[in-house]
Each structure stands twice: as structure tokens, then as C-alpha cells.
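This section describes the prediction task in plain terms. A model, or a person checking by hand, is given the sequence of a single protein chain and must write out its three-dimensional structure as a string of C-alpha cells. No templates, partner chains or ligands are provided. The sample shown here is typical of the held-out split.
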Amino acid sequence: MQGRSRLDRELLDAEMIAGHLVPAGSVFAFLAAHRTELFPGSFTADLFPSRTGRPSLPADLVGAVLVLKELHDLSDPQTADALKSGIRWKVACGRSLTQMSFDPSTLVYWRRRIAASSRPDRVFDAVAAVISGTGILAGRRKRCVDSTVFDDAVATQDTVTQLMAAMRKVARVVPGAAEVISRVCALDYSRPGKPGIDWDDPAAKENLVSTLVNDALAVLAELAADGAPQREAAEADALGLLALVAGQDVEPAQDSDGTDGRWRIARKVAPDRVISTIDRQARHTRKSKSKRRDGFRGHVAAEPESGLITDCEMTMAAGQGSTDAENGGEDGRPRPVPPHRAAGGSGSRGRRRAAGHITGAGHSGRAGRGGRAGHRGQHGGAADRRHARQDGARR
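The expected answer:
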């Protein structure tokens, strides 16, 4: 059952007694003035369809706490303690000076409900709407733009693994592909794991790469040539992935003109290399010359005086569209946020802020991938992960 805030003030209301201590123009003052507009009862009504049971915390309290939590990059216990003892927090959240806090696990409960709802970005959207309506950022054109790398939760795959996985996906997804693969391919892709070769022999590895690439080209010639039937999105995606991994990491073998079917692993890394068939938008990038990372990049743009986030985006870690200049907000209005891939505890606070759990206030923080291993609907799907685990187990 949804809880509601009292309309009358407590005797020791923090805003009435100590509101003058909160700096004007701060996020605390902004929440104190606009908290009920930002987070009315309807804000979380869809999360509590039942009219029975114990009332939840009021929507305006939870919304304000989530905003301040991300602003200060606090853990759940630290947030609960700040609400109990911080005067600014009490003013911003409409509490009395003597009111206690709630159990820290309550925040986990609320985040999960919001993340699983049809509007996982509701907090960010609500803050953006009030910023636009009140004009609080009118005339403030400065923006701080920052980004951080989010480590991918999927193991980076080598070229042989990618080609095998892409071929097996085509066999699963494309109608009739299994028969074509068994007919035109030299290798048996129905067997789990990698082919049994002498992995210490460079010539054997080069022959295997040549066979894999030639098999991929033969399958594509049968299933994706001119005159092939119109494919469903999933089928076309599987064939496109096979074509991509068959070409991104290989080059003609030494003394080959590229027409004799001899290939080898390229002596360079493609600038926009797909590193996993499970999570195809993960990319190689570097935090420094000696520290390579695999994953994604989260971007935020914030107004420096108030700390209000005006724009956010999650992109690939490298390649076109991944720089701060391409993703910084220029007009103070947030862009649509892609589906979040984050879930978990305080270790992924920075990632959640840039990946869908945006609260509308704060600065870009550290982004330990303590939990963006969660939602990956647009990066391969549960079926791919299941088959990848099965292949790995068989190996």
C-alpha cells in the first residue's frame, strides 16, 4: 500500500526552524521547495497497486532521498544516517528535527521496484521536468562534462571462440541454417567447445582460422546472397554478426592475395572491434597507456553550481559517438536514456547514475561494475548467455 505525507507540519519541522541554514540555490533548497511537485503520490502509484497492507514510505521522501544519495555518492547505510542526523537532509526531505531514519535495506527495495517498472528513469525525468518548468537553471550555461568506463561483465572472446559462437547462433536462429552448415562447412559446429588441434603449433592455428573464415563465407553465400529470402530481425542480426566476426580480426595469410582461402589473425586490433558475441556493444578502451579496459562509457553533464545533472548517456567505450564532446548536453535538457544495465549495491553507484538509475542530481562518480551485469536485453539476450555458459561448461 502506498504511503502519503502529512499535509500539516510537525512541531519541530526542520524547514520551519532551520530552513535559513540551507543555502539558497542548492539542491537541498530546491528539494525543500519543489519536493512535492517532483514526487507527488502519483509518482509511485503504479508500484503499489494494492490498497491493503502496511503503508510504504511517502513518494516525496523516497524521491528526495534517492536524489541526495546520488548527489553525495553515499552508500545505503550512510544515506540512512544522513537522513537521521543531517539538518540539510531533514529540511530537503520535509522531516522534523527529532524524526529518525529508516532501515538502509528500504532503499534496495525501492530501487528494485523502480528498476522493474515500466518507467525506470522516473526520478531523472521528474527532476528534468521541474528544472524546465521553474527555470532554476535559466542563464546558467556552464556545464561540467565527465565520463567513466564501466567494465563489462562478459568475458572477452578470442577470434576462434567468436567465430564458433556466431556460427552456432546462426544454426539456432536462422531456419534451415543447421542443414546448410552441415553441408557446406568443413568443421562440425554441433560439437561443443573448440576443435582439437595442437594450439602450440602456429601453422595448425592458422589452418583453423582459415577453415573457420572459409566456413563462414560459405554459409553467408548460401543464406545471405542476392535472392535470399527476407529475414526476420533476429535472423538478419545473427547473419550480420557472423559476417562481422569473420572479417574484423583476420587478414590474408603471408604470400596470399586474399583469394586462395588462406587467412590468419590480423597483426592489429580493429578500432571498433566487437569483443564478445554475447555483449556486442562492449568495446576495448584505455584508462591509461598501460591499463586497458573492456566495457562501456557513461557520460554526464552537470550544472556546476547546483550540481544538477542536465544530461546523461551510456555509449560504447570506443568508436564513433563515445566521446564527451559528442554526448555533453548543450541546452540543459536531458536526452533519452538507454535501458539500464546496472543492478546491485553501492559499488555500482556511478554506473547507475549514467545508466538509467539517474536521479537528476549529482556528479559523475566512480563506476565499479559491482553489478551492471544485470539487464542486457539489447546486447545479446538471455538465450545467448545461456548457450555461452553451456559451451563453456562443455569445454
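For orientation: The chain has 14 helices and six strands.
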